[in-house]
Amino acid sequence: MNPATHCVAMTTCGSRDAAESLAGKIIRARLAACIQILPITSFFEWKGEVQHEDEVLMLMKTRTALYGSLEKFISEHHEYEVPEIVQLPVNAGLGAYLGWIDEVTAEAEA
Q1: Would you state the torsion angle of the CA atoms of residues 82, 88, 1, 67, taken in this order, to the nearest 10 degrees?
Q2: Structural domains of the chain sorted by starting position, each given as residue range(s) with its CATH number in brackets
Q3: Angstrom distance (rounded) from CA 59 to CA 107
Q4: pTM for the complete prediction?
Q5: Which of 40, 62, 75, 90 could form an SS bridge with 32, CB 3.0 to 4.6 Å?
Q6: Could you read off the pLDDT of 52-69 as tens digits, one per residue?
Q7: Distance (Å, rounded) from C-alpha 55 to C-alpha 71?
């Protein structure tokens, strides 16, 4: 199994409810095998102003081939005008776990 075929995608939401709703939609669409939701505090500049917000970070484990579809799906269902959507490559991982990701996301369109 080639680990370069897997990735972690990240996005943030403004509330746990929004993150849980989005996570459920992504899992039902089979675009990710597992999504972890974590409370965070973000500092950023938006439209010329420094912002300080409590947010929820979503870590989504998926296949690299699905990233484009996942990004499009998040863009279409996200509450933010410009959501953070980034991809982090998985350079190594337990073969059985990566195989499970493949199995769970097998029916999603790449």
Answers
A1: 10
A2: 3-104 (3.30.70.120)
A3: 21
A4: 0.91
A5: 62
A6: 999 999 999 999 999 999
A7: 19
Q: Is 2 helix (H, G, I), strand (E, B) or coil?
A: coil
Based on the number of CB atoms within 10 Å of its own CB, is 10 exposed (0-12), middle (13-18) or buried (19 or more)?
Answer: middle
SS3 11: strand
Q: Is the separation of the CB atoms in 70 and 86 below 8 Å?
A: no
Contacts 24+ apart (CB under 8 A), 16-21: 16/56, 18/56, 18/79, 19/56, 19/58
List, as one string, the DSSP characters of 43-70. Answer: EEEETTEEEEEEEEEEEEEEEGGGHHHH
